[in-house]
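Re-run with default settings, no changes from the original entry. Doing this only to confirm the output is reproducible before filing.
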Amino acid sequence: VQLVESGGALVQPGGSLRLSCAASGFRFSSYFMSWYRQAPGLERELVAGISRSGGATNYADSVKGRFTISRDNAKNTVYLQMNNLKPEDTAVYYCYAPRLAQWGPGTQVTVSS
């Protein structure tokens, strides 16, 4: 089982990024997937989750209306589209498969002018 995030970068406030998480080693389409983030000195927090089919999603209040989680089961990939980024979005972003208790290594997102 492996999850590998990509797409993190340094971006200015108000900018956008799309994170990707490539999954392997398990039947991706059978698992709920989620994104978490962890800022320096803070606990890891849930950002968004998506059902197996992609038909249901949930978001942290802090990102509602700005972030969109999606998945492509044919590509074994889950995405996080992040718009109108704010400095407080700066964190390491992790992909997580709850039922497998599997984390990716994370990708750094820095929002700064």
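The mean pLDDT is 97. Residues 21 and 93 are 10 Å apart (CA to CA).
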